[in-house]
Amino acid sequence: MLAPAEGHGGFVAAFRAGLVGGGLPEGVTAVAEAEQRFAVYRNNVAHSLTEALARRFPAVSRLVGDAFFRAMARVFIAQHPPASPVLLDWGAEFPGFLKGFPPVAGLPYLPDVARIERARGLAYHAADAVAVSPAALAGATSPEALRLVLHPSVALVASAWPAASIWAANQPGADAAGMRAQGPELALILRDRALEVPVRALAPGDAALVAALLAGQALGPAALRGQLAEPGHDPAAVLGYLMAAGAIIEVGEAA
To answer: Could you tell me which residue ranges the Putative DNA-binding domain spans (predicted)?
Structure first.
């Protein structure tokens, strides 16, 4: 049993520590049968959390292999146990964990692939918002002065590696061996009208434009940033993609 001075709060903290640290919770004494039962419960919790992490980061799992991922997940769980029974936010530390995990140092792009998968999860669960009609943009007399508000799911993930292409090459049915992309990439992530969460590698001009829109800039200055990043950049393609995906939710005059 737990020492009375510890109380209920102390028991909960000790119980959680025992789940990830091995052995019985600190301050608890029990017969061998109870210790065995607690070990079974601890293993079930670790298995469930490992499965949850694998579902959240499937491309990372494919890149390192299932057995390695499961062993690595145990280390992550011990260092970053869930703070709440609601697991929606759990796993935010995983990209940073990968960056400092020596066994995957030979895969320097892995943390950025994890960041893409983390962003996809956030995009899928982002708040709903109604997309504007294409006429709202097409009928503007001064489009350069318009401020386009993007859907809450829209995010950009910058990488010094071709992380978006690596992610795409490690999807079910994809040919990872055929991946030829090199150099840095910036991934555009959003939840589209079909409730899918695609990942699109952007050219420098498109990336600069979307980043400016996310920062609240009007379309004219945003397009200029795109041209500075990529001379001759035409914003029509990426704006068309955002409109078709339902990712523009408000069109108004810039302040």
So the answer is: 14-98
